[in-house]
Amino acid sequence: MAKVSKRRAQVQDKLEKGKLYTVKEAMALVKEVNLARFDASVDLHIKLGIDPRKADQAIRGTTTLPHGTGKTKTVLVFCTSDKEEEAKAAGADYVGLDELIQKVQGGWVDFDVVVAMPSVMAKIGRLGRILGPRNLMPNPKSGTVTPNVGAAVADVKGGKISFRVDKTGIIHSSIGRVSFDADKLADNANELISTLVKMKPSSAKGTYLKSITVATTQSLGVPIDGKTIK
Hints:
Layout: H1 2-12, H2 23-32, E1 41-48, E2 60-64, E3 75-78, H3 84-89, E4 94-96, H4 98-105, E5 113-116, H5 121-124, H6 128-131, H7 149-157, E6 160-164, E7 170-177, H8 182-198, E8 209-216, E9 222-224
Helix pairs in contact: 2-8
């Protein structure tokens, strides 16, 4: 325990109290203050000046990170038999319908993203209580309910991420791994933040980007100056 505390004290000295860093500075620093002994996820936590209880301010969407997240996502596709080959060719890990529905109903959730054809949504509606709490339920806004299942799978495998604001007005999203260099992490961060800026609801008043922090799975948070966003 003392060893962890000593390491934490050492990295804490690298952070200047009260300072807000540029995106690039923050990405370099978060790698230095990372305490994990594995290739940890690097996550952005963005507090927005919105009221997520209002329908027009409940932000959710997608963006494609230029350098991906560093994690190969496992994709499940619910589709009719005529679309199975298309999904498999695009890289889907699990493809089918009735058998997969039964498997998920039994508690199986060993996948990261679910794509579904509009025509089968009525069938998988019953999975809402399992997929919903895990943010796995297909949704047209995230591009995961579509007749073009092959394209959707290719997007996910190519670095497309989905995000949604939580009930406290914060977006949490992975933008890469500690093994990424700072420039790639900065590119990914700028892509996500600029996407959110474009999505600012017209009804949102005051400061929109209230705070931005980057942290790894096991690290201190590094605050970012929103004014330095490209």
